[in-house]
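Researcher: Structure prediction, please.
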Amino acid sequence: MKKNAYACGLDAAVDLIGGKWKPLILWELHEKPQRFAQLRRAIAGISEKMLIQQLREMEAFQLVHREVHHEAPPHVEYSLTPLGESLNTALIPLGYWGEEHIAHIESIVSRA
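Model: Predicted structure follows.
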């Protein structure tokens, strides 16, 4: 994260969700809490190491809550915090935009 003041709100938001994986993790957690393995299966292409790193950063940024369940067998669930939920809500229009233009985007990316 930056140590200096942000130039604008978008600058601050992008600092929290920069990169490919954080928005996808936010989206996967929007309906209900999920275990690590569920997230790993749901997000195509993410490695275990990268998912751990991203979840730790998101927890530090207070976007995600990590809860350890001391049951047999023990497990960990991840859920969105209120801050994470509000950020996810802000990303919904971007997702709609992507859906509307997905064919065009795919054709451009495949030529690049």
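Model: The helical segments are 9-17, 21-28, 36-42, 48-60, 82-100, 102-111.
Researcher: Thanks, that helps.
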